[in-house]
Write a structure and sequence with these properties.
alpha+beta, single chain
Length: 148
Amino acid sequence: MLKPHLHALCLAYVQERIDACQAAIDAAQESANSETKSSAGDKYETGRAMAQNERDRNAVQLQQARQLLAEVQRINPDTPCDAVRPGALVVTSMGQFYISISAGKLTIEGQDYFAVSGAAPVAAALSGKRAGEQAVFNGKQVHISAIQ
């Protein structure tokens, strides 16, 4: 039941990012719409341009968040893993890693887990390894004690 819980936390993390980006886009659009033409026309145009830039920046972040959502949705947390790959929960001498997306530290019942992308350096170092094997990360030996 641990992997489905970690998976749900990753989904919630991505949904929060999507919601924040959408809210920022809506606020920037509202700001652009509320700019009124004044006798200082340049001020009006500058305000609208700044709001448009903000909206565009947030639209890029929204697209990135949607890509993260697609990555998480491709993972089936109920599938057991016998090697380090996306969807694996890896217990190592350095800590516990859920190979999924870069959502950072997730805590469940006082235990810390790190959600990392398969492209993260630590995941790349562990990739393809099995329980009982060792990997080298940042010049240090990392022992893999279990994989779920």
